[in-house]
Structures are given as C-alpha cells and as structure tokens.
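Supplementary Methods. Inverse-folding protocol.

Structures were first reduced to a discrete structure-token string of length 586. This string, shown here, constituted the complete conditioning input.
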C-alpha cells in the first residue's frame, strides 16, 4: 500500500518548469502539478495536488460552484495539513511561543496571462490548463484533463512471429498518440541468476510488437505514455506479460494468401473480407471437442491460441472492409478491436439477441468515415417495422414456420460509409449470419427477405443509388433457394426450400428485391471444411451495376486445408475460410 501511495505522490509531483506564474511575484524554480479533471457530462470536477508537507489532496467540487468557495476549501485543507505537519509537544510550543492554531494560507488562482481569476467565476470556467494556483508560497501549475491511461493490458498468450497487440484505453488521449517502449526479460547468463537489470529494452517503439524466435521463453514488458497529439503527455504505466513468449505453429494456411495482400490497395479500390471466425462459445463445448472437431488438438481450440492466429491473419490482409461472424463480445472488446485499431481499422459490433456472440464490421479509417448504422434483429423487425408488414401477414398463414422464425436470434448489421477522399462515393455494407440448420431453408428464405427489404430501404430510399456490399455466412450452398433469391432477385413459390423441413412446415410466398447482386468470389468448392461436411456457405455479394471485381485472393490449397485432416487446426483458427477480394467502382 505504501509503495502505491508513494507512486501516486510521485505522479502528482511536477518537474522543474518556468510557466506563467501570475500575481506579480517572481517565478518559482519549480512548480508542482494541480491535476483537474472536468468533463461536461459530469456535475463535479476533481482536483488533485500535493501539499508542501507531502500530503496528497483529492477534492470533488461542483462545476457550477463559484471559484471562491473552492479556494476557501483548499485553504482550510492546507491549514489542516500544515497544522498536522507542525504539531509539537506542549512544552515545545510554549518554548517557541507558537500559536495553537495553524495559520490559514492565502489561496489564489491566476490565469495563464498572470491575471487573478475572479472568485465568482464558476469552477468549470476557472480551472483552465496552464493556470497557476497559489497556496501560501507554493505554486502549482494547473493541468486540465491531462492524458491518462485507464487500461493497459497484454494478451495472455504470446507466440513468436505473431503480433502482440496491447489493449490500450485512455482518457483525454488516443492510442495512436501514445508512446510505446517494449522490454524483454533478461536471459540469465549460463543458466544462472540474471545480473543487473531484469529487463532489457528492445528496438521496438510501436504499438504492435512481433516477438522473434530469439524471445521464446522470455516475458515481455510494455511501458506506455499517454499522449493527446498536442504534445501533452500523462504519467506512464507499465504492464508485464503473465507468461513467456512461446514457439509459434510454423506455416499457417493464410501465409501464402498474405503474399497477395502485402499492401493496402489504392483509393479507387476496396479490399473486402468476409469471415466466420468460430465463436469461442461454440469451440469450447464438450460436443465441439469430441464430436465436431475431435481431430483438432485441444490447445488449438483455446481462444487465446486462436486469437493469435486470427489477429495475424486479419492484419496481414491489409483490408479496407472486414465483415466477421460468430464474434464473441469479449473477443471483440478485448482482442480484435484493439488489435485491428492498431492497424488502422475502426470496429462496429452487433450482438445477437440473447447470445454472447454476434457480428463485427471493420473499416479503414483513412479511407472511410461512418455516416450511419442501421442494424436490426430479423424477428423484431418483422413484427415491428411497417416495411415488413406484407411479409409478416403472409408468414402468419404458416404458424409453425412463423414461430420458428420469431424464435431465431439472427441479426443484420448495416453500415453506411463515405469515402474520405471522394465524398460522392458511399457504400452500404451489410453483414449477416443466417440460421444454421440444414433443414432450415424456409427459415433462411424469410430471414433473407427481411434483410433485402431493409437494405432496399437504406440503399434506395435513405441513400438513393448507393452501391451495396453484402457479406456473411448465409449457411446456404449455391444450389439453395437463398442463394438463388439473392442472385436473381426472385424465388419461385414452388422452390424445394419452401418444404425444407417436410410438408407440415410447407410455406410458399412471392419474394423479390431490386438489386443486381453478384458473388464476387464466385462459388468456391467450400468455405467451411469440418470432419463431417464441406461446402460453400459464405459469400461477398456486390452491386454489379456499380462495382466490379479486380482480383479474388486464392483460397488455401486443398492440401493446406487437410494437412491436419480438417478445420480448425493448429495452423487455421476457424472451421470457415476467409473470402477476400479487391473491388473497384465502375
């Protein structure tokens, strides 16, 4: 506890400076720091400083309160501190003739230009950055909302050759403006005790650090100094890895694909990725380990191990758009969002109803800005939005099917993006994961009908003529009714998928949509390869009137996929394969 207190006191103490001193006196040789945190959305501001006797003070004051009251309170606190520090025995006080009461020091606040701040000014306006607080003879430079780290965390699993992406959360700062210094444990010479410093600084000074094979067996330490991009820096924090760097798996299925995606494509092009990354909530069940993926080494199903592979795979695609399915909420918040943020991608998340996983869409910040989001849950939208009234009425004729549709937790994520270099270029990016059951073709048809109506509302009504990119795990092969409907714009009332679960669940209705959509990556032999099944379930559909395909990044070879029998494996983090293509505006 005393160590933490000393550390807190050190962080509050300032370094020698010669800032504006105010009040006409000579500038002090050094000033302490008075740290003010003032956020408009909160009723109070906080003030932290260290008195000359070394005691720390942390005050909360109403933002609207007149400055004079706050200064009076500081004076009272200072007098108490001085009184405690100067306590003497009765005999000593009698000998000195000391008074029993500690004198209350004069407390004033001066602005940066040296003028005294009037006592009737509200606290929120009075405590400005660079102002100087006088407490008796002591001087304090006010730091208003200085950069501060609220969280600094390293991943639990570190693999040689795989990027280590810390989670950095900051207040009044941004990770891209922070300073990073990486250290490695010192390896003991000759197997004995390490001499001197236990940590050795590496040459790396970036937010993301990729440990080499030489660091296997050693722990890492990160020192981060928060910054705000305006040459203001807050106190540094350090974090050590919980375990050492471990050896990586060697060649991975995505290594050869990275040869095609070393660079981000130009501003006239868009590289899109769609990928079901296999939610941890499904990978870590007994059923998954013993029935679905018995061929996969148990450690390769662990989320920490798979996250190492996923982050390297996704970062290496240099994508502009990434649509992910089966994303655990914790994986998005603690792993993928911080990692991809370091590579210039902004993330959006939509959780499934009553589930722990959902959809994530990432876009490259220097290419796109987010205009609006239009996410829906299919079941909720079907019941509540006038847009789907006709479909809802048709569905009501088939109560068994209606019940199943309304029980599903599937969602649709829709983001409208605008080019940062050409504001006339906008994109409607949709992402979904349809119902999974092999006999659920009729359910998927209803879900995709809701999806297409919703996308039509956005791309035809709200943003007329905006091009559509529709990614996802559609759980539908190229011979399915869902694929046919998306590709052709209609579905026959007698299509076999309307009776996909037997006559008792037969339903048929007329469905249509106005888009001309093309599967940008064609119809691969498979995008999902597990022990008992392989088939094409994932697609990137594009608006063929506005976009064209520049290149499709080849999928891994069949030999690579089956090296460890099937997916997932020690060299591939999911049971699906990412689809990647480069698109350009026509």
């Amino acid at each position: 506890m005393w160590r933490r207190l000393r550390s807190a006191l050190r962080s509050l103490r300032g370094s020698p400076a010669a800032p504006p001193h105010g009040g006409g006196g000579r500038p002090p040789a050094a000033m302490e720091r008075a740290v003010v945190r003032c956020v408009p959305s909160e009723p109070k501001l906080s003030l932290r400083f260290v008195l000359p006797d070394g005691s720390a003070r942390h005050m909360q004051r109403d933002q609207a309160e007149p400055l004079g009251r706050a200064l009076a309170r500081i004076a009272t606190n200072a007098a108490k501190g001085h009184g405690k520090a100067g306590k003497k025995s009765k005999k000593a006080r009698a000998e000195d003739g000391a008074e029993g009461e500690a004198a209350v020091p004069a407390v004033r606040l001066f602005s940066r230009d040296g003028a005294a701040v009037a006592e009737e000014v509200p606290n929120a306006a009075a405590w400005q950055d660079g102002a100087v607080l006088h407490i008796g003879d002591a001087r304090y430079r006010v730091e208003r909302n200085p950069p501060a780290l609220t969280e600094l965390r390293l991943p639990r699993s570190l693999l040689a050759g795989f990027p280590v992406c810390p989670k950095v959360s900051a207040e009044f700062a941004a990770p891209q403006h922070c300073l990073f210094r990486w250290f490695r444990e010192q390896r003991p010479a000759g197997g004995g005790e390490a001499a001197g410093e236990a940590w050795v600084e590496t040459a790396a000074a970036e937010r993301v650090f990729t440990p080499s094979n030489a660091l296997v067996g050693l722990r890492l330490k990160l020192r981060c100094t928060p910054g705000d991009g305006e040459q203001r820096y807050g106190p540094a924090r350090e974090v050590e890895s919980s375990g050492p760097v471990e050896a990586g798996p060697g060649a991975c299925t995505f290594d050869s694909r990275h040869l095609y995606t070393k660079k981000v494509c130009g501003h006239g092009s868009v590289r899109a990725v769609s990928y079901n990354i296999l939610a941890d909530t499904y990978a870590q069940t007994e059923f998954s380990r013993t029935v679905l993926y018995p061929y996969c080494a148990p450690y390769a199903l662990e989320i920490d191990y798979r996250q190492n592979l996923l982050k390297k795979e996704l970062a290496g695609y240099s994508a502009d758009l990434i649509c992910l399915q089966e994303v655990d909420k914790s994986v998005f918040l603690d792993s993928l969002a911080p990692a991809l943020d370091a590579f210039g991608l902004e993330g959006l998340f939509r959780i499934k109803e009553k589930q722990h996983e959902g959809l994530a869409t990432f876009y490259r910040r220097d290419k796109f800005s987010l205009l609006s989001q239009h996410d829906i849950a299919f079941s909720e939208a079907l019941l509540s939005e006038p847009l789907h009234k006709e479909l809802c009425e048709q569905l009501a004729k088939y109560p068994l099917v209606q019940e199943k549709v309304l029980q599903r937790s599937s969602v649709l994520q829709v983001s409208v993006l605008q080019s940062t270099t050409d504001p006339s270029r906008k994109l409607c990016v949709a992402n979904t994961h349809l119902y999974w059951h092999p006999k659920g073709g009729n359910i998927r048809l209803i879900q995709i009908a809701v999806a297409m109506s919703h996308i039509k509302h956005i791309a035809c009504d709200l943003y007329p003529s905006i091009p559509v990119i529709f990614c996802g795990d559609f759980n539908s092969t190229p011979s399915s009714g869902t694929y046919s409907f998306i590709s052709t714009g209609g579905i026959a009332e007698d299509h076999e998928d309307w009776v996909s679960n037997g006559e008792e669940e037969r339903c048929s209705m007329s469905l249509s949509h106005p888009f001309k959509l093309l599967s940008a990556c064609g119809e691969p032999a498979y995008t999902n390869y597990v022990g008992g099944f392989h088939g094409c379930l994932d697609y990137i559909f594009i608006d063929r009137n506005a976009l064209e395909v520049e290149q499709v990044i080849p999928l891994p070879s069949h030999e690579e996929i089956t090296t460890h029998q099937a997916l997932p494996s020690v060299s591939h983090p999911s049971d699906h394969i990412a689809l990647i293509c480069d698109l350009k505006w026509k």
